Amino acid sequence: MTKKSVAEYLSDLEVVLIIAADDGLTLRNFEAHYRMDEEVVTTAMTENGFALRYAHAMLKANKDIVLIAVSQDGLALKYAGGHLKLDRDIKYAHPFLRTDQDFIYEIETFKMMMG
C-alpha cells in the first residue's frame, strides 16, 4: 500500500468537506475549484461565516451563501457582493447587525451613494 500525498488527499471532495467542517477558514488554502463549489463553501461558512472572504466572487454574489455566512458571523457582510450588502434579509441576519448604529449609518450612507 502506498502513502497518499497531501495533494492527493486534498483532491478528494470528502476529505475537503471534513476539513472545511472542522475549520471553515481553511477554505483559503483550497484549490480554486473548491472555493467555487457551493457544498464546500457552505460547509466552511456553517463553521465560520468569515470564510466568505475566501469564497469565489460568484458565490459572494449568491444570496443563500451570503445569508449563511452573515447569520454565522455578522462581519462576513464586508465580503458580500455589493448589491447583497443592501439586501434587508442579509443586513439583519445577525443580531449584532440589527443593533449596531454605526453599521446602520454606514448602510444608509451606502444606499444614498448608490442612488
Distance between the termini: 64 Å
Number of strand elements? 0
Strand-residue proportion: under 5%
Structural class: mainly alpha
Average pLDDT, rounded to a whole number, is 85
Instruction: Give me the Rg, rounded.
Output: 16 Å
Low-pLDDT residue intervals, each spanning 5 or more residues: none
Helix content: 55-70%
Name the quaternary structure: single chain
What secondary-structure arrangement, pairings included, does this model have?
Blueprint: H1 6-9, H2 13-22, H3 32-35, H4 38-47, H5 57-60, H6 63-72, H7 88-91, H8 95-99, H9 101-114
Helix pairs in contact: 2-4, 4-6
Keywords:
mainly alpha, 115 residues, 9 helices
How would you describe this protein?
This protein has one domain. Helix 2 runs parallel beside helix 4 (38-47) and helix 4 packs parallel to helix 6 (63-72). The chain has helices at 6-9, 13-22, 32-35, 38-47, 57-60, 63-72, 88-91, 95-99, 101-114. The longest helix is centred in the last third of the chain and has 14 residues, at 101-114. The model has no long low-confidence stretch (mean pLDDT 85). It has 115 residues and is mainly alpha-helical.
